[in-house]
Amino acid sequence: MEWSLERVREMVAGGMQSMRDCESSAFGTAMCLLLLFVWYCYRVGREHSSSPLRGGYSAEPSRVGGVGGALISAEGDGRAKGRPASVAEEQNSFAYCQSAECFRCTNTGEGLNQRLYHSLQDYAKRYTWSGMGRVHKGVRDQGRYLTSRATIQRPEVFFLPDLPSAPFFSRDAQKHDVELLERSFPALLAEFENIYHAPPARPGSSLPPGWKANSTPHGQWWTFYLVNQGTPLALNARRCPRAWRVLGQLRTFIANNVFGNAYFSVLTPGALITEHYGPTNVRLRCHLGLRVPSSCELVVGGEPQCWSEGSCLLFDDSFLHRAFHEGGPDDGPRVVFMVDLWHPNVAAAERQALDYIFTPGR
User: Which positions fall inside the Aspartyl/asparaginy/proline hydroxylase domain (predicted)?
Assistant: First the structure.
């Protein structure tokens, strides 16, 4: 077949036009994809930058309240007003918090709101906004949540919305840790006996080393902390190596933020811990009964429960609650080993963010 020069030119020109058409089509597709990506980034960035966290955060004062140097009360988390931070460690049989960084006892007001706001944003920049919906909502609307909650449940520091709420939880809510604690009952009881019957810490004191006396209208309430507001107490931990190992084996112990505590708690006959709220609903308090005389009771959200030796009680201490020991002098003390566990419906990503936001000393 013979090809004329004109025919070849026509075919070359057609081929080049086809190539240009293809290139134009591919370029157009690429440009469309690029524009879609830019639009997506703009929308995501706009949603975050226009969030109520940015400039629109509620200025309503926090209900943390209190003043520095408050009494360590209400199962380790309450406080009494009117005590200066310089008060002595032990005065009139009561131990006072002296840390300027005590999270619940510092009168922070709006300053707490701003710290939470900045901490959440810093976390999101370092890690991700993914899974932060409820945490974002809780931080954004903290003031409203803390003041508008029903009086039966009113956490004093932080409320995470959309968590299932109940005064008491089944042991299956944190089955692994409950069973581990109950298996450790003999070791924990023996360790309690060692620290409880130790000689007084100093002349004139009725308390063995490491023990603190807390505010009660009647009777005595003593606590021996291994972890206080997320901070380990090294001397006490060394006195209780078996209890410390148990804490290390728990899967859901709140070990890295101010809502986490672990301690032995003693109520003498006639003691009453008055009604109070805990700081947050993201945790469950777990009480392992070590010594439980009759006439001892824990009332949470109006529901009474009795401890049992060797068994755990799980409850949400953001509900109004109180504890008492109405036994006689011969009944001996009520003793529990208390740990703070994560609420089972707080997701792993949320736990990580809350650990960051509520790091001790932040």
Answer: 214-344
Q: What is the pTM of this model?
A: 0.72
Q: Which tokens sit at 273?
A: 């811990």
Q: Which domains can be identified in the chain, with CATH numbers? A: 168-345 (2.60.120.330)
pLDDT along the chain (362 residues), means of 10: 52 55 61 61 41 29 27 37 33 38 51 82 90 90 73 91 96 97 98 95 85 92 97 97 98 96 97 95 98 96 97 97 94 97 97 94 78
Helix segments in the chain, DSSP class H: 5-49, 110-126, 133-140, 142-148, 175-183, 185-196, 234-239, 241-249, 348-357
Q: State both tokens at 177.
A: 């840790």
Q: In terms of residues, how long is the chain?
A: 362
DSSP, residue by residue, 71-140: B-BTTTTB--SS--TTS-SEETTEEB---TT-TTTS--THHHHHHHHHHHHHHHHHS-STT-HHHHHHHH
Chain Cα centroid distance, residue 235: 24
| Relative orientation angle of helices 185-196 and 175-183, to the nearest 10 degrees | 60
- Answer whether 264's CB lies under 8 Å from 237's CB: no
Distance, CA of 232 to CA of 274 (rounded, Å) = 27
